[in-house]
Specification:
Helices cover 0% and strands 29% of the residues. The protein is mainly β.
Amino acid sequence: MRAGGVQATFTQQVDAAAGRIDIAIIRTSDATGVAGGGLLTAILFDAVGGGPANLSVTGTATAPGGAPASLQVAPVPVVTVR
């Protein structure tokens, strides 16, 4: 996201009651966008008890000008805390 010397801004919003985390990465003043592969973000959890946890990951992306852009999200397996 820092390709081409453009500053990337990262923001997060956690809604513990709903079990949701919203993450936004924005490249302002970027007329060309960025392409490539790699890790965009990582999430660290503190386990509060044992058992399985189902996680789902979704995402959207836009190109410069607001047009939809493709985004591939890897499937997340069930996580089991022991």
